Structure formats: C-alpha cells, structure tokens
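Re-run with default settings, no changes from the original entry. Doing this only to confirm the output is reproducible before filing.
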Amino acid sequence: MNEEFFLWLTPLTYWLLVILWGTILVLYVRVIHDWTHTSLAMKVLLWVLFIDAIRTLFESIYFGGWYTARVGMLPEFVYEFLVQPQHVFFPKLVNVLAALVILTLLLRRWFPHLASELETQSTQIGQLARAQELAHVGNWEWDIVSNELAWSDEIYRIFGLEPRQFGATYEAFLQSVHPDDRSRVTEAVERAVAEPDYRYSIEHRVVHPDGTLRTVHEVGRVLRNQEGQPIRMSGTVRDVTEERLASEELKEAKDAAEAADRVKSAFLATMSHELRTPLNSIIGFTGMLLKGLAGPLNQEQEKQLEMVRGSSRHLLDLVCDVLDISKIEAGQLEVCCERFDVGTSVRKAVGLLATRAATKGIELSLEIAPDVIEVDSDCRRIEQVLLNLLSNAVKFTESGGVHVDCRRCDESLEICVQDTGIGIAPEDMDRLFQPFQQLDTGLSRQHEGTGLGLSISRKLIELLGGHIWVESEPGQGSRFSFEIPLKVENVDHEAQDPGYRRQRAEPVPGAVHSREPRV
C-alpha cells in the first residue's frame, strides 16, 4: 500500500471515531440522567468515562479536520490554522485538563469510597463470622467439577479442626462423618446431584480428631448449568448437639411423667371401688334408718342422719368427679355405643331435678321435638352431662325457671338447658370449662364444689364427637347447649373399669343418687 492510501484512510478513521465517540457520549448522558438508584462508586466511574469521551471526541474532531484539510477535502487555510504549534496545544491542553479532572474524581471520590466499601464488607464478613459462631452455623460450597470444597471458619470449629489448616475436599469431609452415617450422607449427596427436585437435608454425626462426637444438620442445593448438569453445590451446617441432648432429656422427663401418671391412674382405678363402696353403703344404710326400718327415730336423730346422708352424697360426688377427670386426662376414660331413646333419658334427668327445683320455687320445663327418637351413643355419659347442666341451672337460679329443649339438627342431636339465673360475665367465659375453676361472682360464693362439672362435660361431649357451648349475660341467665352426632362411629368398647359403670348405674338401694357438679 502506498502513502496516498493512508493519506485518505487516516481522515476517514478519525471521522469514524467522531461518530462512535459521539454515540458513546449520548449514551453516557442518558445513563447519567437516569441514575437515581446508582451507587456512588458507579456514578464516579460514569463521570470519568463521560469526561474521557469528551476528550477523545474533541481530539478526534481536531485531527480529523487536520488530515481532511491536508488531502484537500477542506480549504487549505483550515490545515494551516490547525497545524500551527499554538493551536496544536489545545487538544493537548484538553487532555491534561481531562486527566486532572479524572484524577481528582478518583482520588477524592472513587478510592475513599472503595476503601469504605471494602471496610464495610470486611466488617460485614466479621459480623457474619461472629453470628455463625454464636448460632453454631457454617456455610460451605463444593465445586463439583474440580472437587474443591470451601468452608467457613465455623464449619472448621464444628468439625473440631483448625481453620485453613485442612484440605477441604469432599473425600476429606466424609472422613469426618461418623462411619455409621457415611453411607446415608453419601446416598443423600448423590441423590441431590442426580435428582433436580431432591432437597438435600440430613442429620448425622461427626467425629472430632480427639474422638468427640457432635451431631449436625446439613441442608444444601445444587446449581446446574443450562444443560442441567450439576456444577456447584452450596449449603449450611448447623451444630444441633445441645438441641438433641435437650430433646432426649425432655423425652426422658416426659416418659417419667407418663410413668408417674400411669401409676396415679392405676392407683385411682384400684381405689375406685374402695372409695365408692363404703360411701354408697353409708348412703344406703342411712336411708334405711331414716325410713325407720331399724326402729323409730326422734326428730334430732332424723336431722343428724339427714346431715350424714347429705355429706356422704356430697363426698361421693367429689370422689366421682376427681376419678372422672383423672381418667379423662390419662386417656383412659372411654365411651361405649348403644341405641337408646333420647326422650326417655332426658325425661329421666329432668325428673331427678324436679324435686330440687320445686323446693326452690322455680319452674322446670321440657320440650322434646317429635323427630327425636333414638340415637347410637353413650346413654350414661349423655345423662351425666345433662345432669351436670341441669344441676348448675337449678343451683344458680333463684327465681324464674329452667327450660330444656331437645331437637334434631340434620345428622346430629342438640340439647339446650336455659335458665334465668345470675348469668356469666364475659371475662369469665374463657375459664368456664377449665378444671378446678369456680367463677368468683354472685351466688357462686355460696356453693361448694370442685369446679370439675363443666370441664368433665366438655371432655365427655368431645369424646362422643360433639361440642358444647354457652351463651350468657350477667343477670339475664345462661343457655348451655351441646350437640352430638346421631351415631358415634368406631366405638365398640366399654369403659376400662367395668365395675365403675355398674356401681354408678346401680347404687345401693335407698341412696337417691344424683350427680351435682359444681362450677
């Protein structure tokens, strides 16, 4: 190629540079115009590039005009003007000024900010290391292709090794795993690498160089390339030794508590007959004496015997309540299923409370819907719950009445006991069905009781697959309702203590036994 070719190529090259740098300058202007969320370091870098683009554009225009005029494409005076030494100085001056501005930006903005960012990153890394140490959690990353394994310092500590003094490879990692757990760990890793949807999560033991055993929990995920091939795997290791020890201690304590509870339940089951039989005998024989079967009694003797019988009944109720709640809490109180006439049971329960209601001068009414006939459930337990509710309603009602409503709702039976008594305050609702809770309002201070009646009732209804609830306002009375299915499913057994049912269902003759729970 001759000199004339380059004489024409040089100005073309400069003007091409003018077009390119002009385009780049426009792009820089647009980026700088919309850099609201750009970091300070990036802003400084953009300004440096913008200034360098202006310098390069000015230089390309200057020398492009020079060489273009030299080949005769511009007037000759343009070349003579640009070639003079005092004019050639201008592009060099622009270069110097641009270099000074760029240097100032770098020294005053870029490097201090970069140092600050590095310091911040170093601080954050230190904070992360301290956080990992406190939480006993370390992170790792495994390059599957090169088989290089990177650990954080905390993993070294978890594995009982000195940081950075251990060749971290997958094989070396397996050497720290307890021999009995290696196959599980290997299988889990291989599955995570082979199956994209498998989540690597495993708990295993590690053995320290001094023989100490620790338990760790690992989680991780596999990073794959566009072809789906595994290339990297990263995750965390957490030391859960203390948690497992605490869990084992808690399990031992739980087992001990359950064993103690079983002993208590066995004791109560054994004492069930021993406690109730003499009490029923006292009630029965006292009733015989009051009927004059052993001879006539004077007025004072009758009074004293009535007190004995009343106290015995009260004590029997307390014993039965405590036995019931103990069996329920131990999971030993079961329900049986039998077909029975609901109307008969409800009338029976109302009849047992009729005399007590009449004595207090309150009306006791009953309404049974025509479609209420028979249900498959535990007759004795339903009567027990109904007697609990009726006893409380009569007890806490001083005037007005108590109404019992029994009706069928689709595939369930609903029984409601509504009274005009003292009612229940809203703040007392939450503890109404809690065991050993007595509401400290109004007339409740005048009545004895364990506070077990409603708690037992709720648990019995739940055992029968139903639920119980209350609606009440202070001074306006209360409405207790419970609903049970028409047929209790999967119940074909009797209570664990058959004698308990027999004694409760068949008291000693002469002992008019009615359950009277106390809230």
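Confidence is low (pLDDT under 50) at residues 440-445, 491-519. The CA atoms of residues 175 and 207 lie 9 Å apart.
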